[in-house]
Design a protein that fits this description.
Elements lengths: L2 H9 L11 E6 L2 E6 L10 E3 L5 H9 L9 H10 L26 H6 L5 H10 L3 E8 L9 E4 L4 E11 L4 E9 L8 E6 L2 E8 L13
Antiparallel strand pairs: 1-2, 2-3, 4-7, 4-9, 5-6, 5-8, 6-7, 8-9
Protein name: Aminomethyltransferase
Pfam families: GCV_T (PF01571), GCV_T_C (PF08669)
Family: Belongs to the GcvT family.
Length: 218
Amino acid sequence: PSAAKVVASLSGQDLSTFGFMTARKMDIKGIPVYISRCGYTGEDGFEISVPHEEVTRLSSLFLESPEVELAGLGARDSLRLEAGLCLYGHDLDDTVSPVEGVLAWTIGKRRRAEGGFLGADKILPQIKGGVTRRRVGLFIEGAPAREGAEIYTKEEELVGKISSGCPSPVLKKNIAMGYVKTGSHKVGTELKVKVRNRMQDAVVTKMPFVPQRYFREA
C-alpha cells in the first residue's frame, strides 16, 4: 500500500502523473532504473528494471524503509488470485482463447472490425457466437481446491476443472479459478468440487475476489 510513497521518497519525483500501465526512466539514489507502474497483485505498485550490478544496492535501499518487507512467491500467488489475475501455464495456455478466458476486452473495436490479427479466424466467431467453456471464479467450502480438481453440477455431472486455487488471506475463505461448461458459468450457480475424493460445495462468484487498487489519474 505504501509503494508510491517509498518510490517517491527514494527518487525525489512527483508520481501524481505517473499513470497505471505507463513507464519511465528514473534515478533512484544514483541508480538508473526503468520503472513501470503496474504489477501482478491487484495493488498499486511498480516493476523495476535495474542494471544487474546494482540489484543488491537497490534492494537494500528499499528495505531500509519500515514500510517495505520481502515477500515470497506464495504471497504473490495469493494476491494475484484474489485480484482475479491469470497465471500462464495454469489459467491460460495455448489452448485457451481470449473469449474462453473472459479476456475479450483486450481486443479493441478496430481489431474486431478489421480482423487480420493472429487468431482472428477463431476468436472473432467466438465473440459473435459464444464458446463452450468459460473461466469463472469460485468460493469453495471445506478444504482448498487445487489445480486439476474436478468441478461438477449439483447433480454431479462433470463440467470443468480448477486451474488455480488457494485460501484467501483477505477474505478468510477458499477461492479458485477454473473452466466450466457454458451454462454453469453464471454468477450464483451452485456447483460441487471434488477435493481428495470428497464433494465440496462451491458457488460461482464475480472476480476480482478482492477489489483491485491500481492507481488512476484524477
